[in-house]
């Protein structure tokens, strides 16, 4: 794994998240730089991994991008936040997509129904008034869907490049957690107002990122 073992990485990462939780009174204070630190720490850990340079770079950039999204989350600038979340998903997708053996059709149907429902509920009557923003958010949802479908297919049918079943499962669960983050963000803005939505987004993000880190660490 490089300079640090899994227990050390989890200990340092958990310590950073715990410190942020205390310093921000339960992730409630407006301290954007602190919120960005955990994913940035994972980006630094990624550079220490003994994996292919291209995969290492793509994985690191994905963590840096999600760190930027957390930095902007409380700034109320949705297009920039979603942009960074989209780039994070895209770079992470590029890091593992070549491992897919075949498509999991049942998951594709479920995800299509889910994302169709999200789109209709949040944007059904908004396209005429804000077409560019709706198009952009639709692209984001599409990339999230492809990421989850690819990860799920690799877990269900196995990887072409490795037999790291635990890593495949961690990636799938991590990306499903990321889906929850995106759904809460969009529902809070365009659907029903949710209590403590930014708290939930941060918490789920901090849970998902180490799963994605260890998924690629175990696979590559």
Give a quick account of the main beta sheet: strands, pairing sense, barrel closure.
none
How many structural domains are formed by the residues?
1
* Gyration radius, rounded: 17 Å
Q: Care to count the β-strands? A: 0
| Principal-axis shape | globular
**Helix content, binned percent:** over 70%
Low-confidence stretches: none
Give me the oligomer status: single chain
Class based on secondary structure composition and strand pairing: mainly alpha
Q: Please give the count of helices.
A: 8
Query: How far apart are the first and last residues' alpha carbons, in Å?
Result: 10 Å
**Overall mean pLDDT score?**
90
Q: Beta fraction of the residues? A: under 5%
| SSE series | HHHHHHHH
Overview of this structure, please?
- The chain has one domain.
- Helices cover 76% and strands 0% of the residues.
- The protein contains eight helices and no strands.
- Helix 3 packs antiparallel against helix 4 and helix 4 runs parallel beside helix 6.
- The longest helix has 27 residues, at 131-157.
- The protein starts with 5 loop residues before the first helix and ends with a helix.
Architecture blueprint of SSEs:
Blueprint: H1 6-23, H2 32-46, H3 53-72, H4 78-96, H5 105-123, H6 131-157, H7 165-190, H8 197-219
Helix pairs in contact: 1-2, 2-3, 2-8, 3-4, 3-8, 4-6, 5-6, 5-7, 6-7, 7-8
Features:
single chain; 220 residues; mainly alpha; 76% helix; globular
Could you write a compact summary of the structure shown?
The mean pLDDT is 90.
């Amino acid at each position: 794994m490089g300079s640090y073992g899994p227990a050390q990485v989890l200990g340092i990462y958990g310590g950073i998240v715990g410190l942020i939780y205390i310093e921000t009174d339960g992730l409630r204070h407006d301290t954007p730089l602190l919120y960005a630190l955990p994913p940035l720490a994972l980006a630094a850990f990624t550079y220490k991994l003994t994996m292919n340079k291209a995969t290492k770079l793509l994985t690191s950039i994905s963590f840096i991008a999600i760190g930027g999204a957390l930095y902007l989350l409380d700034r109320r600038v949705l297009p920039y936040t979603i942009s960074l979340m989209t780039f994070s998903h895209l770079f992470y997708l590029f890091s593992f997509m070549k491992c897919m053996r075949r498509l999991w059709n049942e998951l594709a149907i479920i995800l299509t129904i889910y994302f169709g429902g999200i789109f209709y509920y949040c944007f059904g009557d908004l396209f005429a008034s804000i077409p560019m923003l709706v198009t952009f958010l639709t692209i984001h949802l599409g990339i999230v869907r492809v990421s989850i479908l690819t990860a799920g297919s690799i877990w269900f049918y196995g990887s072409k490049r490795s037999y790291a079943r635990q890593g495949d499962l961690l990636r799938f669960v991590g990306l499903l957690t990321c889906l929850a983050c995106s759904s809460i963000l969009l529902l809070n803005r365009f659907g029903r107002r949710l209590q403590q939505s930014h708290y939930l987004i941060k918490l789920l993000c901090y849970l998902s990122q180490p799963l994605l880190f260890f998924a690629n660490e175990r696979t590559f």
